[in-house]
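comment on this one:
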Amino acid sequence: MTPFLLYQQDGPVVTLTLNAPDTRNVLTGNSAPDEFSEACARINGDASVRAVILTGAGAAFSAGGNLKDMQQMFDWSPDRLRNWYRTGVQRLALAVYHLEVPVICAVNGPAIGAGCDLTTMCDIRIASEQATFAESFIRVGLLPGDGGAWLLPRVVGKAVAAELTFTGRTVDAREALAIGLVSRVVAHEQLLAEARALAEQIAAQPGVTLRMAKKLLRAGERLDFAPLLEMSAGLQALAHKTPHHREAVDAFVQKRPPDFTPFQD
């Protein structure tokens, strides 16, 4: 059986590729939740990984939910439907959101519904000129059941998130850049090269500190300022004790590039 999610590691960078182009990489009605959970646990447990690239195979990034499968769900009870979300796409969302290393989403084509929300679970989004985005649930009489109502406002702000959610309209790559949904738009043929270059720039930093920095950014989405400062002090104390910090400071004083290669994260 062909895996839904391809896992490829090249040095400190892992590339995850949604690999069901015949279904436009839909995230429901298949093994996506299981494979994402396994891949994310593998990455979190591997200290050699410092960055992740997430992209899609074929013309689409992800069409979101499989609408054909939803026809057979018309007669399901509310309790069964609720459990389907909790054990399916919501499990996928939690796995991606809680990845400990920086994640770059290389959006190669349409990112629709849950596919759009999947991009917002990542830290950075780079879009091909062929990418489009739609928080399209309302157009099929549904809600963002994968956490999009929490994720999207944190990326584009409340007003823009409300507009996209209430209209379900599609935005192209240039508008996505203008509203802050992506940080850059690149030529389609350069997408993975751009994502790889950024991933390598990130992966050149100390891995243990990268993971602490991401933990702090995630905490900042839910903590008030005072408890975030307390958490910052604790993590910073740990960072001060790493050999990476000592090497970086020594290199700065000695006017040379730092060399982190002797240190294991």
User: Anything to note?
Assistant: The CA atoms of residues 62 and 119 lie 10 Å apart. Strands lie at 5-10, 13-18, 51-56, 103-107, 110-112, 124-128, 132-134, 170-172, 184-186. The two ends are 35 Å apart (CA to CA). The longest strand covers residues 5-10.
